[in-house]
Amino acid sequence: ENRWKDNITFHDNNTVSYKEYRQYFFDESLSVGNESDVVTIPNMLVLGASVMMEKMPLPVRLLLSTTFKTFKEGPFLTKPVGEL
């Protein structure tokens, strides 16, 4: 993992804001598999949106649900490790 901060801004109220970036690298020597192995993980975008949608009006929930279906997004992602 490689992390860095950018757009660092110091504010008059003694606070600081920034955008944090993360980049991950696959180290085959530390793994029992390789980058072509397929894994299934939770789709945090869909699951997080689902929790936030619980109290929204029905038309908004239907719109977001339709959007996820249009882009074939579900609660889980199945991809090769190298794509993640």
From TrEMBL:
Sorted alphabetically, the keyword list is: Cell membrane, Disulfide bond, Glycoprotein, Membrane, Receptor, Transmembrane, Transmembrane helix
Q: Subcellular location, in the record's words?
A: Cell membrane; Membrane, Caveola
Report whether Membrane shows up as a keyword of the record.
yes
Membrane topology (UniProt): Multi-pass membrane protein
Q: Name one GO cellular component term.
A: caveola
Q: Which InterPro entries match?
A: CD36_fam
Q: What is its main location?
A: membrane
Domain of life where this protein originates: Eukaryota
Record family assignment: Belongs to the CD36 family.
Protein name listed in UniProt: Scavenger receptor class B member 1
UniProt source species = Cirrhinus mrigala
